[in-house]
Amino acid sequence: MSRFWTDKIASLDPYVPGEQPQDKQYIKLNTNESPYGPSPKALAAMQDQVSEKLRLYPDPNCQTLKNALAKTYSVDADHVFVGNGSDEVLALAFMGYFAGGKPLAFADITYSFYKVYANLYGITPDIVPLNDDFDVVPSDYENLDVSGIVITNPNAPTGKALPLADIEKVLQSNPDIVVLVDEAYVDFGAQSAVTLVGQYPNLMVVQTLSKSRALAGIRVGYAIAQPELIEGLERLKNSFNSYPVDRIALAGATAAVEDTDYLEEICQKTVATREWTTIELEALGFQVLPSATNFVFVTHPEHEAESLYLGLKEQGILVRYFGNKPRIGDFLRITIGTDAEMAALVARLKEM
Ligand code: PMP
């Protein structure tokens, strides 16, 4: 029998997160987590909160974290918004700035959550295909009749980055709509558009602590934009959940953002391991897209992605396979782990 809610539930097409298997210990190269622990200073700050302090609500304004981020990116604290992972920041931006009108432009291939939010908020996607080299082409974003544009830089899961001049072209040809630049992986080698925020009132940059700051477990993301756009996100947040970031996360995130030396150290290690992995995979006949992230997007002319994924899983190594889909289905996305983990990956692939 069809009840009131059945159609509603059937209409949802949720995001399927990467596997987080509990059956055994895998070398986990499938969800772009950092192989290194968070900053020791962040761990100490979080441990300090695990006390009687937890009877108190956190600061709903996340002021200490906003101040630390503002200092890091040379903006005022009223240019910063904080949310429960960048997924929540994206959800609020979609709700506030893209819903209720024209379609929203974003690429194919890109982060698959955009389609999910679009569906949730009744937004029609205006899909702009990447070119044959898997690049975003700025002129494809001119003269669109859309409510907004999302550019992922570096893109995921391709790993390719756009130069800042190309981001500027998109901003300049779309002065009246929000251009959201999702920079989840920017610290691993791309140029951040944060430096353009002062010039472009239509720019919103979104970043996360989940990747380069090794804090996926505490769910903290943020947006940087001019105060008008930030104020919109604050109003939405306060209409939805005034306390999206808990006390432990807030303390850990603030200490992690302040520890810039640690950020630099683990990013450098990841980039060095990525370069080594790229050379090794190419020697095995893989095509490896140039990556500015903590993962590589690879395909092999003689071996199907699915059989490689299954063979590696059998050997205790998890990588991301996207299913039998056009274009993306030929590829695997492999997170950069430690040197030892990547050496194990290469050794298994050689055997296979
Ligand atoms: N944007 C992109 C491009 C991502 O790949 C991810 C991670 N899956 C996110 C945003 C979300 O990250 P988080 O919610 O952990 O901040």
From TrEMBL:
Stored InterPro entries: Aminotrans_II_pyridoxalP_BS (IPR001917), Aminotransferase_I/II_large (IPR004839), HisP_aminotrans (IPR005861), PyrdxlP-dep_Trfase (IPR015424), PyrdxlP-dep_Trfase_major (IPR015421), PyrdxlP-dep_Trfase_small (IPR015422)
Pathway involvement of the protein, from the record: Amino-acid biosynthesis; L-histidine biosynthesis; L-histidine from 5-phospho-alpha-D-ribose 1-diphosphate: step 7/9
Catalytic activity annotation: L-histidinol phosphate + 2-oxoglutarate = 3-(imidazol-4-yl)-2-oxopropyl phosphate + L-glutamate
Gene3D superfamilies noted in UniProt: Aspartate Aminotransferase, domain 1, Type I PLP-dependent aspartate aminotransferase-like (Major domain)
The keyword Mitochondrion belongs to this UniProt entry's keyword annotation: no
One Pfam family per UniProt: Aminotran_1_2
Modified residues (N6-(pyridoxal phosphate)lysine): K211
Keywords: Amino-acid biosynthesis, Aminotransferase, Histidine biosynthesis, Pyridoxal phosphate, Transferase
Domain Aminotransferase class I/classII large per the UniProt entry, residue ranges: 25-349
GO biological process per UniProt: L-histidine biosynthetic process
The protein's Enzyme Commission number: 2.6.1.9
PROSITE patterns xrefs: AA_TRANSFER_CLASS_2
Cofactor: pyridoxal 5'-phosphate
UniProt GO molecular function: histidinol-phosphate transaminase activity; pyridoxal phosphate binding
Enzyme class at the top of the EC tree: transferase
Family classification: Belongs to the class-II pyridoxal-phosphate-dependent aminotransferase family. Histidinol-phosphate aminotransferase subfamily.
Subunit structure of this chain's protein: Homodimer.
Protein name per UniProt: Histidinol-phosphate aminotransferase
Lineage of source species: Bacteria, Pseudomonadati, Pseudomonadota, Gammaproteobacteria, Oceanospirillales
Gene: hisC_2
